[in-house]
Amino acid sequence: MTYSRPTRPYPAPTSPFLMHQRWQYLLFAHWPISPSLLRPLIPSSLTLDTFKDAAYIAIVPFTMSNIRLRRCPSIPGTSAFHELNVRTYVTHHNKPGVWFFSLDAHHRLAVAVARRWFHLNYKFARISLQHQDQSIHYTSTRPDQSAQFIAQYQPTSDPTPSSPNSFEHFLTERYCLYTTNKQNQLFRGEIDHDPWPLQSASAQIHSNTMLQPLHLTLPDTQPLLHYSQSIDVRIWPLQRVE
Predict the structure, then answer these.
(1) What would the pLDDT profile of 34-78 be if each residue is shown by its tens digit?
(2) Where are any strands of DSSP class E within the chain?
(3) Domain of 75: which CATH number?
(4) Which alpha helices (DSSP H) does 22-135 contain, by range?
(5) Is the dihedral of CA 169, 170, 172, 176 positive or negative?
(6) Domain range holding 142?
(7) Residue 183 CB-half CA count within 13 A
(8) Distance (Å, rounded) from C-alpha 111 to C-alpha 121?
(9) How far is the C-alpha of 194 from the C-alpha of 209, rounded, in Å?
(10) Is pTM, for the whole model, over 0.85?
């Protein structure tokens, strides 16, 4: 089965997908940042994607569940874990996608597999996600204390998909990632899902040192916040990009 919707900038792959995941209790926290600060951190084969001449960096806490290979049941002990992403936006030959600076996960096996087979900068972190009333309490700390994120967040509106060509669409409706291996060869990983059911959100961020390893400082402005309760995602194997 293939999936193609008006929100996608290009059709989904026609080949069978590799893996299914469910992403839940997700917060998009976005800050504007000067493209000149991000450009040295992005491979030269990629173009930094901007909106009205501003680049954006995002911190995205969430939890994964129902992780399984296509046509296979979930394997107990490997089908769910918490994750925290630091990302920005790039294009290659006008194909927009995501570049991950880091991906923290509360699952050592997942970290090892993703680093080896998906060439992604996964880090093990001790992560907890707890519900209190309508709020999510999220804590992530790497064992070496090199990066930490502690926040409480909650939705503040009803869910709705973003409009094509809108700012929210630019930030969230991304259907591939880019990464490089140790030989600096470029790869693309395709994903597909329904349009994000976005909600406005509020957050109290108590600690955020996720950009310290990048030697970056976030601007002294409030982040743009969006929440999504749940979305099912299909993931394809990495493909080498010539």
Answers:
(1) 999 999 999 999 999 999 999 999 999 999 999 988 877 666 666
(2) 19-33, 47-48, 55-69, 81-92, 95-105, 122-124, 126-132, 135-141, 148-155, 176-180, 186-193, 199-208, 224-235, 239-240
(3) 2.40.400.10
(4) 35-38, 108-117
(5) positive
(6) 19-240
(7) 3
(8) 9
(9) 32
(10) yes
